[in-house]
Amino acid sequence: MSNGFEEAKAQRNALERLIDRIPGFRGFQDRELRRDVDKLQREHVAGQVGGVKKRLREIARDYTDAGKIGILDRFERLDRRLDGLAQSIRHSDYGASGLFSPQKIGEEELARLYEFDLSLLDDVALLDGKVSLLPPPGEGEPEAALDAVLAQVREVEGKWGQRQQVISNVVQHAR
Q1: What pLDDT, on a 0 to 100 scale, did the predictor assign at position 95?
Q2: Is the dihedral of CA 21, 22, 24, 29 positive or negative?
Q3: What's residue 172's pLDDT?
Q4: Cα 113-117-123 angle, rounded to 5 deg
Q5: What are the pLDDT digits (tens) for 54-81?
Q6: Contact 110, 97 (CB under 8 A)
Q7: In which domain, by residue range, is 132 found?
Q8: What is the DSSP letter of 22?
Q9: 25 within 8 A of 19, measured Cβ to Cβ
């Protein structure tokens, strides 16, 4: 993921660049742009989690079709956990964050946040990989693989919980 804020900023039209020259307006506009980019990033991560959830549901459906219903409660718990994670990411309270305060946040500080978000995407990809290791029905016991998926979900949940602290550190460093 590249520096989304700078890319979005470069896409502005002539009117936006003219408004950029109005004293005080640029900071407001940059904050709104950061808010939009943050929302896009969170939507992307939540979408990736949703993709993992979809794959897990497909595998659960295979188990149902094969009559292996004894394990379905574990699939259901994981499904709810993934749904909660995606909703938490999608609907986090980004508006109260210091990332959108009037102070100037530098490229170096934003890069730290973007690196964190990239590592979060890597963790979601790892989660997807663990889901892909679930054995098809009748080709092994899925319990250990489901435990590994759950452990990775917990890892991503914990990391997501740290994002607000990363934002706070970015803002503190910018002061």
Answers
A1: 43
A2: negative
A3: 64
A4: 145
A5: 999 999 999 999 999 999 999 999 999 9
A6: no
A7: 4-174
A8: S
A9: yes
Q: Which two tokens stand for residue 61?
A: 């459906």
Tell me how many helices (H) and strands (E) the chain has. Answer: 6, 0
Q: What is the pLDDT of residues 87-132, one digit of tens each?
A: 999 887 654 455 555 455 666 767 777 888 889 999 999 999 999 9
Tell me if 120 sits within 8 A of 159, measured CB to CB. Answer: yes
Alpha carbons within 13 A on the beta-carbon side of 77: 11
> For residue 175, what are its two tokens?
């002061």
Best CA proximity match to 42, nearest among 97, 96, 117, 109: 117
What torsion, rounded to 10 degrees, do the Cα atoms 25, 27, 32, 36 define? 130
Counted residue by residue, the chain has a size of: 175
- For the chain, how many structural domains are there in total? 1
